[in-house]
């Protein structure tokens, strides 16, 4: 009621245990705290906080315009309401290595279970856009070293994302992920791989967990969870999927409202008031302190 009962440390510890189990963990992207609660209710393994989604939610393109304050604020709101671990997109760490260190500690304080840092130049670009540039290996390694040294909770996950595959060949990607693991990365996120065989090659090159990004309309095909499991992927994110579904439904609904003057045709598709109240635990809130505030759900139209 009001917040998840588990502490951030407990969520991080459980996240590490699940990663060590060898299971494929599925983390849909939440666009707000309510969607994170639904992700938990539907039985997923964790919640992903996407930089692209946060940018879009603010009406901005995903080109490195969001601030650490904005990312930490939304990440903390999402982490607070769910028992699941939250993994957050920290872009390039919002600056040089010292800024990366501060970003790690602020996001640690926000209650997330881990973050990923990428090796693009500042300002960064969406991983599936053309025109990306990556930093040299030394700069990328310094970011990860700074992040690993800055964390205070040893269970806080430092994941290294590399965008080298968008600018060079697979052998260059393999060289980069090995260097990032040697620098202290607990897991790797090779962005924009083009085939299952490339995922398998990265998996064989490292001894830490690997994440696959299954974003629609991107450079990678939308492989099934079983296909990813078969080549050794440990985590899969669906970063923008819920936002795209919601915005698609909103666009269709607004078109109907404009044309017909009513949303009656879409009512069967909507989340009912009863289901929303159940997700938000109105009943638990009412029982918490009836002497302060009470309300009656008996006449709620389901």
What does this structure look like?
Helix 5 links the parallel strand 3 and strand 4. The model has no long low-confidence stretch (mean pLDDT 93). Helix 5 runs parallel beside helix 6. The chain has one domain: Phosphoenolpyruvate-binding domains (TIM Barrel, Alpha-Beta Barrel). Helix content is 44%, strand content 11%. It is globular, with a radius of gyration of 20 Å. The chain has 302 residues and is an alpha/beta fold. The longest helix has 20 residues. It has a five-stranded parallel sheet. Strands 1-8-7 form a three-stranded parallel sheet, with no helix packed on it.
In short:
The chain has 302 residues and is α/β, with parallel strands linked by helices.
Number of helices: 12
Order of helices and strands: HEHEHHEHEHEHEHEHEHHH
The CATH architecture name reads Alpha-Beta Barrel
Strand fraction? 5-15%
Q: Identify the CATH class.
A: Alpha Beta
The geometry reads as: globular
Q: Span between N and C termini?
A: 22 Å
- What name does the CATH topology carry? TIM Barrel
CATH superfamily: Phosphoenolpyruvate-binding domains
Helix/strand/pairing category: alpha/beta
Number of strands: 8
Proportion of residues in helical segments: 40-55%
Radius of gyration: 20 Å
Query: What can be said about the biggest beta sheet?
Result: 5 strands, parallel
